[in-house]
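Progress note, sequence design subtask.
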């Protein structure tokens, strides 16, 4: 499984980890403080009880017969509600009087004034009559620990409930803090060769201003480079077309001259080479336009009319081919630049002519829903090859006359116009496929 490399996820995890650390530290410090404060409060209580019992015990002993038999007071309340017990002892350490819950044996072997601990008891001892009477008040150490844990649980449970809520809140805050980064990423992702406008810096946080400025600088350099290439394409259109047209005109004059047969064949070869060069130049210029020109979105044209004009022109140059037109009388109005649409239709039909068998029919179909489709028989094409046909210089058959640019130009222009292009090859027999190129244009409202 790929490990997440999100900065914001790491930030949230770090904050939550730090929160847990502080929570544990607060729990430890709070438990220690509660334990200390409870012990101090219980010690004060033991001391107060012992000092109040001392005069009562002395008076009681003075009024009673002086015997060594230990007396046990009657049970007043259960031990559950009486955590403290007491013993009244003489100077020899014998137990004279004890509370009901107190053990019969002395709480401690030695009588030490003040606080002491013995056999799990926390004891406070006070004396009277010159050391002849001692009062010891004690509590179980386990009782003190239980009280400490119960008090600590009083703030631990709310803290445990707040930890997941705090983690959720931290995650929510981090996600909201990441929104400007996502918005910046979205704005950058929307930039392409047709949209190189600068990013608006007003709504971008200060921490991302540097990135936005760098992206704006990069897009400015790209725009300048694209503009230079666009100017080169415009100049090349003039510089290349004119010499080629002149050369073809001279070749036509030579073809009419009475030349020996070998020279006549060479003239024909030169004419074909120049014609091929002219077609290749035209494709390259169309490709340059599709790459660097943004089609006007408000232009509307008649799909059937443009298709018929282009098809008729091609049909006059391809007398040996059967071009079947299936067009509505009043074709749909689509949002497409007329010149760009003519390039699209021309490339679709020429692609079908280049890769279909001689004397085979080519169907061009237009529907009222704004689609144009060409259908032609061709050699078998695998689905893998069909997926690559819109790439530059990708040809379905190296034996064809195409240059591998036509469908790339069509795909680019269709996307600029907001349309969609689908290619499909259906096997109809061994080694033969029926190839269809379908374009959905945006119908004008």
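Output:
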């Amino acid at each position: 499984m790929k490990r997440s490399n999100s900065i914001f996820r790491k930030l949230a995890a770090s904050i939550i980890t730090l929160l847990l650390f502080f929570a544990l530290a607060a729990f430890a410090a709070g438990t220690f403080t509660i334990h200390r404060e409870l012990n101090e409060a219980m010690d004060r209580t033991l001391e107060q009880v012992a000092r109040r019992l001392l005069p009562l015990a002395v008076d009681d002993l003075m009024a009673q017969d002086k015997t060594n038999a230990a007396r046990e007071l009657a049970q007043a309340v259960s031990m559950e509600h009486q955590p403290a017990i007491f013993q009244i002892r003489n100077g020899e350490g014998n137990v004279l009087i004890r509370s009901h819950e107190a053990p019969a044996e002395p709480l401690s072997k030695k009588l030490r004034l003040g606080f002491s601990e013995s056999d799990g008891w926390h004891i406070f001892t006070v004396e009277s009559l010159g050391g002849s009477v001692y009062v010891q008040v004690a509590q179980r150490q386990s009782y003190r620990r239980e009280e400490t844990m119960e008090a600590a649980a009083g703030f631990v449970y709310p803290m445990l409930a707040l930890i997941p809520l705090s983690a959720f809140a931290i995650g929510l805050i981090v996600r909201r803090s990441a929104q400007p980064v996502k918005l910046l990423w979205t704005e950058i992702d929307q930039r392409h060769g047709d949209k190189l406008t600068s990013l608006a810096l007003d709504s971008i946080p200060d921490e991302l201003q540097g990135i936005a400025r760098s992206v704006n600088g990069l897009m400015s350099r790209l725009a300048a480079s694209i503009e230079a290439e666009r100017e080169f394409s415009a100049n090349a259109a003039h510089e290349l077309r004119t010499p080629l047209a002149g050369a073809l005109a001279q070749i036509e004059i030579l073809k009419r001259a009475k030349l020996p047969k070998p020279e006549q064949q060479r003239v024909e070869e030169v004419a074909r080479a120049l014609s091929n060069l002219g077609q290749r130049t035209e494709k390259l210029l169309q490709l340059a336009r599709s790459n660097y020109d943004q089609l006007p979105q408000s232009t509307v044209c008649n799909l059937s009319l443009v298709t018929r004009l282009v098809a008729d022109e091609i049909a006059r140059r391809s007398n040996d081919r059967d071009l079947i037109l299936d067009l509505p009388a009043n074709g749909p109005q689509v949002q497409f630049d007329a010149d760009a649409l003519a390039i699209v239709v021309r490339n679709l039909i020429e692609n079908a002519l280049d890769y279909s068998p001689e004397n085979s029919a080519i169907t061009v179909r237009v529907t009222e829903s704004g689609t144009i489709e060409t259908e032609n028989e061709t050699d078998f094409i695998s689905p893998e090859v069909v997926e690559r046909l819109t790439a530059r210089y990708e040809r379905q058959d190296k034996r064809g006359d195409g240059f591998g640019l036509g469908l790339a130009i069509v795909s680019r222009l269709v996307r600029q116009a907001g349309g969609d292009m689908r290619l499909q090859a259906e096997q109809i027999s061994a080694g033969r496929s029926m190839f269809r190129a379908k374009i959905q244009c945006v119908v004008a409202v």
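The two ends are 49 Å apart (CA to CA). Work on this subtask will continue into the next period as scheduled.
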